[in-house]
Specification:
The protein is built from ten helices and nine strands. With 287 residues, it is an alpha/beta fold. The structure holds adenosine monophosphate.
């Protein structure tokens, strides 16, 4: 196989729009995969999905400052554009859009998009109150800048996908929002750029997260009530060396609402956010 050509990189809205317009003039359709870089096989699976759904796939890399609280890991977040661009080119991506913070938030920037209530409210909305405002604002900008036919987001960030679907529908963005399945390591730990923060010992102990999720799904399928399963799952995680557990919650997979008492149905989903050392890990599994 011949090596892929270097990936074209653009950093301004004008250049991005010119390339997309040129494709449109040829009758080509466009998929977009927004990311924060430090790419892994999970991101690349979304590029592969883009390749199936459209003629050209644009990836964006932007570590968005507005979705990090001051005490969070914005400065430490892993960055490596050259490596990312190579991986994207190999995966068949046609263009990398990597804007600067000044391009995204020029002086005088003063508009934010907030998805209020509903799917944005629980879970991450409670643990990271700044988060979805930052995400909805930056994603609405990225989608307006590129105007793709389809935009692809990972089910790894299941609630984020739900919030983006809500936002795209509410703002009539005219972009189809598609979710891609979570890519996992051999022990089923969800791939994440933040896994790079884990020490070897923490990484080993983090295996307990997918194991606890699998156990939780098993208990729920046996008919154990959600609340009891949440308590048991928290205990399993604590026992395995997880520190603070932000949440373990069983919720409806569409509305993200709490479920009534008694055995849960097939549409339920288990959501977890827990800390291994200084690293916050999130995951979700269908029941
Ligand atoms: P991030 O760079 O972490 O902001 O993620 C960019 C996109 O990749 C988001 O839509 C994520 O949901 C998605 N993503 C992250 N990790 C995975 C994974 N393990 N499997 C599938 N998609 C993922």
């Amino acid at each position: 196989m011949t090596a892929p050509l270097p990936l074209p990189v653009v950093r301004t809205v004008a250049e991005l729009r010119a390339q997309v317009a040129a494709w449109r003039a040829q009758g080509l359709t466009v998929a977009m995969v927004p990311t924060m870089g430090a790419l892994h096989a999970g991101h690349l699976s979304l590029i592969a999905l883009g390749e199936q759904l459209a003629d050209r796939t644009v990836a964006s890399i932007f570590v968005n400052p507005t979705q990090f609280a001051p005490h969070e890991d914005f400065d430490a977040y892993p960055r490596g554009e050259a490596r990312d661009a190579e991986l994207l080119a190999k995966a068949g991506c046609a263009l990398l859009y990597a804007p600067t913070a000044a391009e995204m938030y020029p002086d005088g920037f003063g508009t934010t998009v907030n998805v209020t209530g509903g799917v944005a409210d629980p879970l991450e909305g409670q643990s990271r109150p700044h988060f979805f405002g930052g995400v909805a604002t930056v994603v609405s900008k990225l989608l307006n800048q590129c105007r793709p036919d389809v935009a692809i987001f990972g089910e790894k960030d299941y609630q984020q996908l739900a919030v983006i679907r809500r936002m795209a529908a509410d703002l009539d963005l005219g972009v189809e929002i598609v979710g891609g399945p979570t890519s996992r390591e051999p022990d089923d730990l969800a791939m994440s750029s933040r896994n790079a923060y884990l020490s070897a010992d923490e990484r080993e102990r983090a295996s307990a997260l997918p194991a606890a999720m699998r156990a939780a799904v098993g208990f729920l399928r046996e008919g154990q009530p959600a609340e009891a399963v949440e308590t048991r799952t928290k205990a399993i995680l604590s026992e395995a060396g997880f520190g603070k557990i932000d949440y373990v919650e069983v919720r409806d997979g569409v509305t993200l609402e709490r479920l009534g008492p008694g055995p849960v149905g097939a549409g339920a989903r288990v959501f977890v956010a827990a800390w291994m050392g200084k690293t916050r890990l999130i995951d979700n599994w269908a029941v």
